[in-house]
């Protein structure tokens, strides 16, 4: 798991207290290696944790180049946004709840070129929650709208 500092601190506070042996997700969350991107933390309390200091894009690019399994970001929207902008994200898995919040931070807010996505999986739960998986396709092409005059 790859996490930003704020998400890591919230997860590290709560997940170690969740120890239901009948829940396989709990065991995985607590056992998986955690990588936290931070220039303020020096060590992690939720083991196993490795703190990655320095430029997030360079640090994560180096981590991604290592052999091993996939990296997943849970939460950590600022970190995820910077990695999408840098082209380091292969897939986005989004959960859309049927709620209009009307305030808060945007999920993807960085400046830079638009990124293309291709829907590869989708599911709607009985409660109306959408589970969406997109692959990244590189830089998105953009058209220009020339107005109605262009069509006559």
Short description:
By secondary structure, the chain is of the alpha/beta class. The protein has helices at 5-14, 24-31, 56-65, 77-85; strands spanning 2-4, 34-37, 49-52, 91-96, 115-124, 130-139.
Query: Regarding quaternary structure, how should these chains be classified?
Result: single chain
Q: Assign a percent range to the helix content.
A: 10-25%
* Main sheet summary: 3 strands, parallel
Number of domains: 1
> How far is it from the N-terminal to the C-terminal residue, by CA?
54 Å
CATH T-level fold name: Dihydrofolate Reductase, subunit A
CATH class, please? Alpha Beta
Q: Strand order, main sheet: write it out.
A: 1-2-3
What is the C-alpha radius of gyration, as a whole number of Å? 19 Å
Q: Tell me the fraction of residues in β-strands, as a range.
A: 15-25%
What is the molecular shape? globular
Averaged pLDDT: 91
* Global structural class: alpha/beta
What is the fold's blueprint, element by element?
Layout: E1 2-4, H1 5-14, H2 24-31, E2 34-37, E3 49-52, H3 56-65, H4 77-85, E4 91-96, E5 115-124, E6 130-139
Outline the structure in words.
The chain is α/β, with parallel strands linked by helices. The protein has one domain: Dihydrofolate Reductase, subunit A, CATH 3.40.430. Helix content is 24%, strand content 24%. The chain is built from four helices and six strands. It has helices spanning 5-14, 24-31, 56-65, 77-85, and strands at 2-4, 34-37, 49-52, 91-96, 115-124, 130-139. A three-stranded parallel beta sheet has the order 1-2-3. Strands 4-6-5 form a three-stranded antiparallel beta sheet, with no helix packed on it. A hairpin with a 5-residue loop joins strand 5 (115-124) and strand 6. The longest helix has 10 residues, at 5-14. It is globular and about 65 Å long. The model has no long low-confidence stretch (mean pLDDT 91).
